[in-house]
């Protein structure tokens, strides 16, 4: 059941440790008077990791040695400064689905962000942080009726559509809504696209605008999404040109558009073979300034851009299997092929594809696991100084496809050693309790606040 913000707790319960290199104030507003201190960032994170590893080593309590997260809220501010530098005209709207951690929402709300929600429950969550309804966009083109009614009751007016049936639904349940027509964008050059599911083709635009006009609905602008990890900047150019065409077409139906949503999918960390954020932003800035007057309010959903660099996942090696040559010959099928290919070193960790590493299934990125603790010594950011072996790292569930990586160079590890993966803040928060495993606990640090 959805209830209004007055009945919703300000901070939903979260699992966290009271460990912070620079303590975070536990109040309703993240402290925004921050001082840049890049040199101490790694030390903040290392201190938090060492404290947690020490407690995991000393304690025998159930779950004390579970995998855990280090979430650096200060990195949000770094990303925000970067966004403001390269895309100062465009207001960021954070998509809750990317990482719903309450302290992230709290921090971004204090920085004046808007929020992108796709369900009534996400809207309810954002309202509980005191976010104004005008700063929320209901960005689902096929909305559940009860969620649409909830949005109406609490004044969430901005929302998207891409089909005529949705217009009739909105007419019945929320005729005063402010609508954005989501147009189709070419996502063929993106790691993960939504074009097959969402977005109206240009051939359908006139019919949709005509229907909206006949129904007396208020269409305010255009939205699109080119997909996550776009490798071709020209896609933004083409889609922005199409958006401009829709703006012009709308005038013929009596609409005066003043809102453009350019979507998300921006990489939080620059990667080889893809345009840098600076390069992408340069094209977007030039195109938007050319095609859209300053009277048009432009928003975006750079959620991955903001949160990907904030999170480090730390997981423990809980088992090891070294396959001998004789065992390899006796194994059958895939197991034999894996063992032969990877020279007999197989490790099992207490996290996996059904938890923090779920995005491996979506994006097929190379997972850069690094050594965190070996033989009781924390070696965070120290690199590997001994012989390495081609290895396989398996996840902790009984599902046979739960393999984090099937080809990684690691030294000879033992049960009790730890590994870590950086830049895991986007879509890494586990939503699964498959096989009874709990969601990892979070340790918060703020490498920017000058305490």
From TrEMBL:
The active site is at residue 398. Coiled coil: none annotated. Gene3D superfamilies: Alanine racemase, Lyase, Ornithine Decarboxylase, Chain A, domain 1. Its EC number is 4.1.1.17. Its cofactor is pyridoxal 5'-phosphate. GO terms for cellular component: cytoplasm. Residues 309-425 form the Orn/DAP/Arg decarboxylase 2 C-terminal domain. The modification N6-(pyridoxal phosphate)lysine is found at residue 97. GO terms for biological process: putrescine biosynthetic process from arginine, via ornithine. InterPro entries: Ala_racemase/Decarboxylase_C (IPR009006), De-COase2_C (IPR022643), De-COase2_N (IPR022644), De-COase2_pyr-phos_BS (IPR022653), Orn/DAP/Arg_de-COase (IPR000183), Orn_de-COase (IPR002433), PLP-binding_barrel (IPR029066). Pathway: Amine and polyamine biosynthesis; putrescine biosynthesis via L-ornithine pathway; putrescine from L-ornithine: step 1/1. PROSITE patterns: ODR_DC_2_1. CDD domains: PLPDE_III_ODC. Keywords: Lyase, Pyridoxal phosphate. PANTHER family: ARGININE/DIAMINOPIMELATE/ORNITHINE DECARBOXYLASE (PTHR11482), ORNITHINE DECARBOXYLASE 1-RELATED (PTHR11482:SF6). Belongs to the Orn/Lys/Arg decarboxylase class-II family. This is ornithine decarboxylase. It comes from Phascolomyces articulosus. The lineage of its organism: Eukaryota, Fungi, Fungi incertae sedis, Mucoromycota, Mucoromycotina.
């Amino acid at each position: 059941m959805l209830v209004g913000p007055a009945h919703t707790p300000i901070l939903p319960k979260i699992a966290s440790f009271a460990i912070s290199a620079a303590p975070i104030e536990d109040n309703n507003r993240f402290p925004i008077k921050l001082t840049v201190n890049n040199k101490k960032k790694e030390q903040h994170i290392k201190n938090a990791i060492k404290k947690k590893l020490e407690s995991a080593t000393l304690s025998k309590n159930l779950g004390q040695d579970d995998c855990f997260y280090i979430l650096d809220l200060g990195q949000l501010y770094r990303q925000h400064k970067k966004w403001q530098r390269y895309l100062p005209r465009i207001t960021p709207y954070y998509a809750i689905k990317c990482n719903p951690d309450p302290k992230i929402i709290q921090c971004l709300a204090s920085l004046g962000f808007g929020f992108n929600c796709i369900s009534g429950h996400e809207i309810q969550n954002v309202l509980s942080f005191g976010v104004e309804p005008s700063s929320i966009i209901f960005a689902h083109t096929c909305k559940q009726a009860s969620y649409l009614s909830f949005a109406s009751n609490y004044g969430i007016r901005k929302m998207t559509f891409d089909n005529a049936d949705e217009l009739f639904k909105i007419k019945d349940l929320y005729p005063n809504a402010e609508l954005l027509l989501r147009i189709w964008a070419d996502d063929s050059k993106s790691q993960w696209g939504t074009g097959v599911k969402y977005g109206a083709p240009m051939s359908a635009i006139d019919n949709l605008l005509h229907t909206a006009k006949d129904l007396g609905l208020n269409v305010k602008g255009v939205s699109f999404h080119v997909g996550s990890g776009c490798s071709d900047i020209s896609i933004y150019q083409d889609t922005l040109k199409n958006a401009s065409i829709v703006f012009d077409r709308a005038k013929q139906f009596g609409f005066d558009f003043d809102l453009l949503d350019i979507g998300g999918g921006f990489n939080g960390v620059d990667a080889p073979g893809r345009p840098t954020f600076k390069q992408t932003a340069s094209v977007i800035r030039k195109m938007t300034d050319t095609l859209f007057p300053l009277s048009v309010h432009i928003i975006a959903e750079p959620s991955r851009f903001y949160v990907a660099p904030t999170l480090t996942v730390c997981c423990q090696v809980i088992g090891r299997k070294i396959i001998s040559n004789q065992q390899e010959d006796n194994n059958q099928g895939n197991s034999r092929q894996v063992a032969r290919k990877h020279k007999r070193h197989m490790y099992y960790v207490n996290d996996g594809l059904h938890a923090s590493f779920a995005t491996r299934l979506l994006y097929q990125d190379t997972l850069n696991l690094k050594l965190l603790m070996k033989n009781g010594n924390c070696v965070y950011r120290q690199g590997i100084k001994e012989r390495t072996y081609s290895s396989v790292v398996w996840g902790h569930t009984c599902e046979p496809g739960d393999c984090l990586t099937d080809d990684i160079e690691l030294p000879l590890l033992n049960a009790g050693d730890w590994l870590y993966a950086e830049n895991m803040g986007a879509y890494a928060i586990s939503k699964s309790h498959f096989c009874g495993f709990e969601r990892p606990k979070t340790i918060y640090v703020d490498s920017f606040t000058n305490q």
